[in-house]
Every structure is written in C-alpha cells, then in structure tokens.
Amino acid sequence: MLNRRKTLLIGLSNPNFSQRFFRRRLRTKANHGYDDVSRRNIARKHGDEEEDKEKIHLLKSRGQHLLTNPRILDSIVRSSNVKSDDTVLEIGPGTGNLTFKLLEAASKVVAIELDKRMIEILRKRADERGVQDRLDIIYGDALKTNFPEFNLVVANIPYGISSPLLAKLVFGVKTNPYRSATLLLQKEFARRLLAKPGDSEFNRLAVNITMFAEVEFVMDVSKRDFVPPPKVDSSVVKIYPKSKIPDIDLEEWCAFTRTCFSKKNKTLGATFKQKRKLMELMKLSKFEGRSVDSDDDGDDLGSGTGISLLRGKIVGILESGGFLDKRPSKMPNDDLLQLLSLFNEAGIYFHDRANAKGICDAAFDACDCLL
Ligand SMILES: C[S@@+](CC[C@H](N)C(=O)[O-])C[C@H]1O[C@@H](n2cnc3c(N)ncnc32)[C@H](O)[C@@H]1O
After folding, report:
1. Which residues are S-adenosyl-L-methionine-binding (predicted)?
2. What ipTM, to 2 d.p.?
3. In principle, which of 18, 195, 268, 332 could form an S-S bond with 201, CB 3.0–4.6 Å?
C-alpha cells in the first residue's frame, strides 16, 4: 500500500497552488502528512477531479522533494543568467516546476530524469504548454548517462548524488564545456563547498572542486519551500568552470589530497611520518632507496630500510618547501599543488599510475575524494 504521508497529487507541483496549500497546512499543525480529506480538498481546489487519478508517490530514496515556491524558482532562473539561445541541462526535472520556468528564458532544456512517472507528467505538461519541441527528456541515471550538448546547467538535484554529480560536471568540463552550473544543494554540503582555508568546514571537497571551478553563494532556501519538506535546509550555489584548467593528473591530485586531509588539522610532518602512510607510498613510489629491502614490512624504521629512506626523503621535501609544520586545513590550493609537484619530482606518487584512466573515468572514480 502506498505510504499516504508521501502521496501527493500532481496539483501540488503547481507552485502557486502548492504554496497556498502548504502555508495552510503549516498553520494548522506541524504535520507534513497528506490525509484523504486534504487530498480531496486539493483536487477540488485545483478545479479538476481528473487530478485525483494523478497521484504520485514521492520517493525519499530518489530525493523527490519538489521545489514549489515560485519566488525561489524565479530567483534561481534569474541568478542563472539564462540567455535566449542557451541550451540548459537540468538534472532531475521531476514534474517540471523549474523546467518550465527555464523554458521561458532559454532556447532549449535537456532534462535527465530517472523516474518514468515524472517523465510522463513532464511530457503531458510540456504538451499542454506547447513547449514539447524545446524540451528533450532523457530517461536515465544522470550519473551513468552521457550528457547531451548543453552550455548551462540549472538544477534542483537529488541530494544523494551531489558528490558524484559535481565530480562529473566539474572534472568533466573538458568534455562538456559550459558557462556555469546553478545548483540547489543541501546547505551543509554547500557550506563545505564554499569554505576557504582556515574555515572550520574547509576540506578536500572544497580543495578538489575549487581546483577546477569558482564557487559562488547565491541564496539559502528553507525546507518549507519544498513539497514534501526535506529534513535539511538548502542553498543555491553557482559554479563557474575555470577558463584555464590546471594540467594535473586528476587521480594523482585526488589521492594526494586524500592523504593530506586524512587528518586535516595535523601538521604535514606528523601525517607523513605515520608508518601506514609510508607503507602505502612505498608501494606506489619509485625512488633510489626503494629496492633496499623488498620484503620490508616497516616494523623497523631504522636507517637503511626502504621505508626509513622514504621517510627521510619526505621530511627533506617538507622541510625544504617550508611545509613541515603546515596544516592542510589552512593551506591554499597553490601550496598543495607546489607540494605535490615536489613529491612527484622526487619520484613519490600517491596513485597507482599503472592503472591510470582517462580524465572522464577518473572523474567518476575521483568522486569519492569529494566526500
Ligand atoms: C529534488 S527532486 C527535484 C524535482 C524538480 N526539479 C523540482 O525542483 O521540483 C529530484 C529529481 O531527480 C530525480 N532523480 C533522482 N536521482 C536521479 C538520477 N540519478 N538521475 C536523474 N534524475 C534523478 C528524481 O526522480 C526527482 O524527480
């Protein structure tokens, strides 16, 4: 049986209507369920008994929280600077609240949606509005689907795929160039993305994304602006891919930042003295001392073993660059980049280059480095 708490009439996807309905529900009780009476009322109020047949069970597992506040929808479109010749990529159009606003400004929208029921509604609404020729709907998982051509991204995405989707968009910008991506994200995730060195939220998500893109805060969005309301608040951010993408090995960079940020408040000297870290690097690196003792298990860090030579080399690099007492949580990207190049020049690597992939595959794999 359908869970009635999340069964909404499609009438709710009409922003003007659902805002009125939602405000009334909030006045009566902090109850976000939808009972039979409310549903009948919704159908009557919407003036279409046919609506009653169009119930849709919104799935939490697919992040189906529809943005229904028209003021917020308008602000998102405005802040995206959509131009009349733009082709906008929208991930997760749902029932089309944002899609149809975008179509008022753009030449075309290409929308990738995982849920066939949403697509059915979207198609019907597009036909009713006569915009079907300007809306391409792709049925599929946005993480697994090859992106079509587009030059702008605007989306209220399912928060569960924020990291890999961001990786696909930001790291894949060479394959899919675009002007900017305006995304509605979980507020906490957005804060981490916007964090600067020294901020308590600063982490490798910010480091890795800002290597390739500038991130700008647009606005906060209350959970009350969605139907059904999610548990968390949200923020809109705008991401601008950098015009000059640094020429780095993405997998190597992500593996390096993963190591540095494993204990982001520790000094680099302390992080790189850990036996476990040295053992990992020993397997991946190629430097003079490596072959000293091939079955070196690192138990004895005395002089002469491969591991102790590696440790000496790393400490030397950290000292010479002035990095020994630096903490990753306070380091700007340029410093991290400089340190990685010093390591690599010395034959010390963080990723298995024998299994290196192209940038697109790497983008998918690297997304775990955003978490
Ligand atoms: C947060 S809702 C947004 C709906 C609509 N854009 C709005 O603002 O009202 C997210 C939508 O993404 C869809 N979705 C979830 N996972 C997806 C995926 N991996 N690929 C494409 N769409 C997905 C859901 O079915 C849902 O329609």
Report:
1. 65, 67, 92, 113, 141, 156
2. 0.99
3. 195
